[in-house]
Amino acid sequence: MFPPASLSLDEALAEDDRARASEHAWLLGRFVVPDGVEVDDRELAVVGDGRERQGDVVYAEGETKIRCGGARIPSVEELAAFVRDAPAPFKATAGLHHAYPTEEGEHGFLNLLAAVVFGDEEAALRAPRGSFELDESGFRWDGREADASRCAEARRRFRSIGSCSFFEPVGELEELGIL
Question: Mind listing the pLDDT tens digit for each residue in 158-167?
């Protein structure tokens, strides 16, 4: 949430506190800060020089971390190749505010999850709104189903989705009836 969101550290901490007090706080991970910023009372993801450190794990841009928005949005083909070839664990960040792809060309985080869980990466990344079902019994797409065990296996490989917003993706998942 801090940066690339245009919030001061105090505003970002207040927004993080609000998210952590919500019923969907279980979706939250670490609080993102630039290298050199200290915050005492929460787990941090420290970003600087193309790297992001989350505890003992370091993600490197272009190797184990892909930016899906910001100055440039990778094509479906580029993102599919990254998903196929990235070593575990990897992280996707930036531009993943929506469950499904947008008209502006942003990728959907459910599409990205389907690409990791089911393979067939390009088709999963292009799947239109309403293509996925996700509930307590599993994740479904295109006649395929992944139970909790298979989703957990994918989670060991695909660790994190970064977004400047917490409430925007949560609101969208609520609208879709997933949350």
Answer: 988 888 889 9
Closest CA to 165 of 56, 73, 32: 32
Residue 140 backbone class (left: φ over 0; alpha: ψ -120 to 50; beta: rest) = beta
Selection from 42, 66, 26 nearest residue 170 by Cα: 26
The model's pLDDT over 97-130, given as tens digits with 9 standing for 90+, comes to 899 999 989 999 999 999 999 999 999 999 999 9
Q: Residue type at 42?
A: R
User: What does the DSSP 8-state code read for residue 67?
Assistant: E
The number of residues in the chain equals: 179
pLDDT tens-place string over residues 137-157: 999 999 999 999 999 999 889
